[in-house]
Every structure is written in C-alpha cells, then in structure tokens.
Amino acid sequence: MLIDLHVHTISSPCSQIDPKELIVVARKIGLDAVCVTEHEEMEGAEEAWRLGREAGFPVLRGVEVYTEFGDMLVFGLFRPAFSWQTPFEELWRMVREAGGIIIPAHPCRSDRGIHEKMGRESAEYLLRSVDALEVKNGGNAEEANLLAEEIASRYGLPGVGGSDAHFLMQLGRCLTVFERDIEDEEDLVREIRAGRCNAAYANEVEEVNLSRAWR
Ligand SMILES: [Zn+2]
Ligand SMILES: [Zn+2]
After folding, report:
1. 11-52 tens-digit pLDDT
2. Phi (first) and psi of residue 49, to 5 degrees
3. Beta partners for 72?
C-alpha cells in the first residue's frame, strides 16, 4: 500500500492543490491513498475525504500542528482547529487521549540535527514522546532527510515519508510504503505504531510514476 502521508490542499492558503485534482492525479501516478494534513485545521482534510469517498479513492485525514518543537503531523485526533503554536505537551496529551500518533514533520529541514536545533534535553524529550519521524519529506534537501533517517534509527522510531506537496507536480515525490492494507485513520495509526512501514522516494518504487500525471 503506497501512501503520500503529507499533502496540503487549497484549504491551506500556502497550497495550490485542488482536492478533486489531487484524487485524480494521486490515482494516475500510482498511489493507493493520500493523507491531507493542513496547517492547524481539518476542514480541508474533511472535504478531501468526502471527495475521496465519492471517487472511491481513500483520503485519510490528518493535521500539521506547529509547536515549540516545530511542525508535528498528527493522525487519529479529530479537531476542527488548533491554536497557533500549540504547546507540545498539550498536543501530546490530546493525541494520547484520542489514541492517535504524533510525528515530527521535516525534523532536520535546516540541515541541523534535532539535538543541535533544540538542545539535548528537549530533543531527548521530543524523541521519546513521538511515535515516528518523517524521514523523507519532499520539501527537504536529501541531507536533511538522511539526518532524520539516522536519528530515527538511533531512537528506534518508525520512519515515514510524505511529499509535503503544495503543488500537484510535487505529489508523491516522497511516500510511505505499508506492508498491509489501510482503509482508514485507525488502520494508519496502528500500522505506523507497529512500524510496518518504510519511507521511500518516488523513483525507488516501481509502481509509482510521477510523469503519468501529465499524460
Ligand atoms: Zn511543515
Ligand atoms: Zn506541510
């Protein structure tokens, strides 16, 4: 099962992706599902999820929440809106209560390790509190992804991948390969928690062909 775990639609002011086109293109390029993760709100994800159901293509709902430790991808917690810079601990508590998961998005984007960026103590706390790391982010330089990969393996955290697409041509450039089928957010949370997934670049996965989007 091939899923792009990190996509923004026009519901986020920073994105140009129309949710209807998202579904068409995701299917064309060989993805089996996409996760819509807008900034601080879930309306866009709900809308894409509805369109996905109509089209018979699974769209999973998540959210990207900014905290003092950077952006966090959250799955399994359904709240219409989040405040700007939610304290990490508050978010962690909400996610735990809901039975969801937290995944630091693009944790090493500035090419600095988590420890260098936020200090050893905070980094240790963060890495012991989260469920996985985004180790392949389509908006990152390769070095930043490698660094995240290294940290994930050092801390025994599952690694996931997502395009962080804001334009359709960016969709699928990074993705997550799941061993089992995923139909809803509950499956997604369980499979990531169990570590039955791997991050990949589009060109590492035979079934994915980004150029098919434009044919
Ligand atoms: Zn982000
Ligand atoms: Zn993002």
Report:
1. 988 999 999 999 999 999 999 999 999 999 999 999 999 999
2. -60, -45
3. 65, 104
Cβ atoms of 18 and 47 within 8 Å: the answer is no
Cα–ligand 1 centroid distance for 184 (angstroms)? 23
- The answer to whether 208 touches 190, Cβ cutoff 8 Å, is no
Tell me, in angstroms, the distance from the centre of ligand 1 to residue 71's CA: 5
Rounded to an integer, what distance in angstroms lies between the CA atom of residue 182 and that of residue 189? 10
Tokens read off for 80:
């219409």
The span from the CA of 3 to the CA of 134, in Å, is 13
Q: For 155-171, what is each residue's pLDDT tens digit? A: 999 999 999 999 999 99
Structure tokens at 183: 């139909």
CA–centroid distance, residue 161 to ligand 1 (Å):
13
Q: Where are the alpha helices (DSSP H) in the chain?
A: 19-29, 43-55, 88-98, 114-118, 120-129, 142-154, 185-193
Tokens, residue 106: 């693009």
Question: Does the structural domain 2-214 have CATH classification 3.20.20.140?
Answer: yes
